[in-house]
Amino acid sequence: MRIKRGTVSRRKHKKLLAQTRGFRGTKSRLTKVAKEALLHKGQYAFHGRKLRKRDFRSLWILRIGEAVKQEGISYSVFMHNLKKANISLNRKILSDLVVNDPQTFKHIVKQTNQIKTATT
Q1: Among the four 2, 19, 74, 94, which has the fewest Cβ within 10 Å?
Q2: Domain residue ranges of the chain, discontinuous segments joined by +
Q3: Which is nearest to 38 in space by CA: 60, 62, 59, 21?
Q4: What is the pLDDT averaged over residues 13-22?
Q5: Is there a contact between 99 and 67 (Cβ–Cβ < 8 Å)?
Q6: 45 contact partners, CB below 8 Å, separation of at least 6
Q7: DSSP state string for 87-111
Q8: CA-CA distances (angstroms) from residue 94 to 11, 29, 39, 91?
Q9: Which has the minimum average pLDDT: 4-8, 66-70, 105-109?
Q10: Which CATH number does 6-119 carry?
Q11: By C-alpha distance, which of 109, 102, 103, 53 is closest to 81?
């Protein structure tokens, strides 16, 4: 007696294609290609999470740099003065202040400039 596994294969294939729904081209239609795409999916997601952190940090630095440039100093000088003034705000918070509360950010910049002139 032979074993017929048509229903089992169909179920497996449907499950596989459901996981690759939204992929481009044959990666969402053909089982062989979809299986390979599914194997790479996790690697791409992992790498993407690392890239997201990198992208956000560069965005924060860009925002802070532009805001400090309007105050007449460079980003690197501002960060150095921030450390000298013992103000421990990270780039994410500083960037949020630039966008949502510019007055507070200007106050922080003035504080760091005063420390610089006092020590010089």
Answers
A1: 2
A2: 6-119
A3: 21
A4: 95
A5: no
A6: none
A7: ----HHHHHHHHHH-HHHHHHHHHH
A8: 52, 47, 39, 5
A9: 4-8
A10: 1.10.1900.20
A11: 109
Report the sign of the C-alpha dihedral through residues 67, 70, 75, 80, in that order: negative
DSSP state of 27: G
Q: How many CA atoms lie within 13 A of 48 on its CB side?
A: 6
What is the tens place of the pLDDT at every residue in 68-85?
999 999 999 999 999 999
3-state SS assignment for residue 3: coil
Give residue 120's pLDDT.
56
pTM of the model: 0.75
| H helix count then E strand count, the chain | 5, 0
What is the rounded distance in angstroms from the CA atom of residue 94 to the CA atom of residue 51?
21
**Biggest CA-to-CA distance, the chain:** 94
Residue 117 banded pLDDT, cuts 50, 70, 90: low
